[in-house]
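Our preliminary data section would be incomplete without showing what the modeling component actually yields. Below, a chain of 341 amino acids is followed by its predicted structure, encoded as tokens that our downstream tools consume directly.
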Amino acid sequence: MSYISIQRRIAVLIIEFLIKILWALDKVFSLEWKYISKLFLKIIIFLLSLSFLGFIVFGIFSGYIHNLVVAYLTPEYNPLPKTTYVLYPLLVGTEPKPEITALSALVVDKKTGKVLFEKNSSEPLPPASTVKLMTALVALEIYDLDEEVLVPKECTEVESSKIGLPQGKKFKVRDLISSMLIGSAGDSACTLAVSKIGEGDFVQKMNEKALQIGMNSTLFSNPIGLDNINGGHHTTVLDLYKLSSYVMSNPIIKDMVKEKTFTFQSSDGTGFTVVNTNRLLWDIPNTVGVKTGTTQGAGEVLIYEYSDGPEDIFILVMGSRNRFGDTKSLLEWVSRNYRWK
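Predicted structure:
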């Protein structure tokens, strides 16, 4: 009798469960929204409870809950996994820094701004013809590229590297900027500075632009880069890096400084050819530019950019006795001792 009673009870439970299901289906299909909402809420509570129970079971058997309890009771202990972020370029070599002749130098990864090498980066020194990068920036602001300007007599007599622009000839602004950046033409720089607003106002704009881009340790006194003019001028490799980074974001200047040679002519057809003063454009593949400078007071100065895939760096040297040798040494040292991926 007991065995039959259990069977009957099970059958009754099954029949009761099926009746409830049929009843629920009837409620749903008859669109009794009050009942449907209650049923939906019960299902959600059931699923959440089931999920929580599953989490507790997983946490116990995996040890995760144990680790959380230990971390809470002993904050100095952290058993949870940590994510490590590697900031490339990554120093992987142990070679000593190279010996260079430059009084001041800086190597910076262009994409991250990470300093890879530094020597006296805040020391103020004469910038020589690297100031012509700023001259180009100001010229682009006050002239149209196809505008023509007349070469004045005073610019044919500047005590600077020059390409021999004839007095009274007209040249396009575009060509004057190119010849100034590629061949370091002081007569081109002078012509750009005096032909529209006067040299004093032009230099003032150079200094205003310097402050605008964060060159707070810089003073320009002339647009050519000559020593001891109007009291002299100075900058630092750190400020020159800010300048070079800014100008190389300008596609016009970037296209100019990478050219090995440049040929142009005056409005009446007088032709000129200039050769880039940056010898590394020939010596080192993947050289991008940027600008050389040399005076007696400044020594040899070079702003240089190298780009090869993820490796894109600026190298700046001031007060050097061998700017190209110093730059090569720094580039080789960085390439051997840093990794970009």
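The domain at 90-339 is CATH 3.40.710.10 (Beta-lactamase). The longest helix spans residues 33-62. Preliminary results of this kind motivate Aim 1 of the renewal.
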